[in-house]
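SEQUENCE-TO-STRUCTURE ENTRY
===========================
What this section holds: a protein sequence and its matching fold, both as plain text.
Question of interest: how does this chain fold, as expressed in backbone structure tokens?
***
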Amino acid sequence: MAFSSILRKSAYSLAPLAIRLNRVQRNYHSCIFTALNYSFQSQQPTVNRFYQNTLHFSTAVDSRKPSSDESLIRVLESEIQCAEESDDYDRVEETPSGFPFEIEDTPGLQTVTLTRQYDGKLIKVNVHMPDLVTGDEQEGDEDDDDDDDSEKSSKSSIPLVVTVSKNGSPSLEFSCTAFPDEIAIDSLTVRNTDSEDELAYEGPDFHDLDEKLQKAFHKYLEIRGIKPSTTSYLHEYMINKDSREYLRWLKNLKKFVEE
């Protein structure tokens, strides 16, 4: 009994010590957490200020255009002004009386399409941008030689693709070069509308045909409206279109660089 009483007293005396130690340990962890939390909070403003300054600096750099872009824009503006001062870009050629074709001109495209009906067939002409020859080039070519080929190369020209077709039937396609005073046929091909013609036989070189056959095909096109009086008007029309498309191209370039 006496020994048991001594143990209970010892236990009672040790219990407050354990509780005190446990409280001290909890208070110690609580102080560490409080200190860490305070340290973290005290560092937050510095971190936030750093990121704010960094973001502000990056935005300023992104919003500034390189000097090379600004220089390019100034050059484009100068070229646009020169193009607008030209007499060609806004000139409208009056269609001559008796012009047999309807003209389809879509802004932004480099071709103009002419169409008409003749003898139950559709005549379609794709007119491409002109190949212009300046006065200096003409003088240089004349000094080289005087044959027919050099004479043609010293003149401005426009490429034409003439297609004569009828529904459900093969079409006849002429590749031509129109000069101010004559039309040269470069090649002609018979094309089937319902098959691939990439490997189809396209006939011999047009200039290798018999001279009478060549003249007959020239007459064939002339009757259908492909003649010098038509192509002379097309020369002026396509030169003006070339000026308009060039101005549109410059403005699109400037818009792209500015964005």
